[in-house]
Amino acid sequence: MIKEDKVKLMTKLAIYEQGEGKKDIPTSKYYRSDYMSVKMIESFIATTIVYILIVVIGVLFNIDYLSENIVSLDLVALGKEIAIGYAVILIVLMIISYVVYSIKYKKIKKSLESYGEDLKTLYLMYKKEEMQAKRKEEVKAGGNSDDATIGF
Fold first, then answer.
1. pTM of the prediction?
2. Which of 13-27, 44-58, 103-117, 123-137 is modeled with the greatest confidence?
3. Is residue 36 in a domain?
4. Is residue 83 included in any domain, yes or no?
5. Stretch 72-90: mean pLDDT
């Protein structure tokens, strides 16, 4: 006998596993600190690469000016400006990354808690059906097989 509520719950679980769960379930293996560390390192690397690309594009865009005035430019001051710009952007983006990934981790944990509760509910449904089937077998067999026989 197919139970409609069990089918609905199984469908809900399958949809989650195929959708958001593909990303959320592997995340459940991380502690918050590990997850945040990995995401912060990824953000650091991405920010560094993008900043280097922006500086290279800026140099290439101004290559004529730089080649004509290379001797008169204060390269130390230019290097300091680039380093300070990098530090400011890095700090801002790391703060943003921390906030975003903290919120995302909390959302994932909440989704996984709901998923776990649904799995537990499904498990209990199966256990209940199993117990009912066992009772039906006992009734058909004429009693519990663990019943002691009365000796004369």
1. 0.68
2. 44-58
3. yes
4. yes
5. 94
